[in-house]
Amino acid sequence: MSQSALLVGAKCSGLVYVDAVVKKGGKSAAARLLVDSGATYTVLKKDVWTILGLEPLGEIDLVLADGTTITRKVSEAIIELPGYGERHTPVVLGEEEDENLLGIVTLEIFGLVLDPLKRTLKPIRAILKTEHHDKQ
């Protein structure tokens, strides 16, 4: 698969998913993640992070779409995306009712952005400001 665009699956409702592998300490688990450009952090369902034996490193307060604030534990894991390799990323340790989400922090770590019209993840067009020096 080309690294210029990763085609992801979609349901009729327009939700976009990507199949990933989550790793930690020699263990791995397949996970279907909802690509959520409104979510700051990647969230792993309890059945995924318990397979990996992830331990909480702290807690974070999260605000849901309806304005409700919830508290979840956070950890770290390695996420592998097809065609883009693997990266170390913070993850929220979800509860039974939480859905697997691929959040903005992880997308940025991979240098990716969601194209919602094409339902692809594509590289971020990064801009770097540099000073130009005239050579005389």
Automatic annotation (TrEMBL):
Q: Which residues form the Peptidase A2 domain?
A: 31-114
Record keyword Hydrolase present: yes
Q: Give GO MF terms, alphabetically.
A: aspartic-type endopeptidase activity
Give an example GO biological process: proteolysis
UniProt name for this protein = Peptidase A2 domain-containing protein
Query: Which InterPro entries does the UniProt entry name for this protein?
Result: Aspartic_peptidase_AS, Peptidase_A2_cat, Peptidase_aspartic_dom_sf
Keyword annotations from UniProtKB, A to Z: Hydrolase
SUPFAM superfamilies per the UniProt record, alphabetical: Acid proteases
> Native species of this protein?
Caldiarchaeum subterraneum
PROSITE patterns, per this entry? ASP_PROT_RETROV (PS50175), ASP_PROTEASE (PS00141)
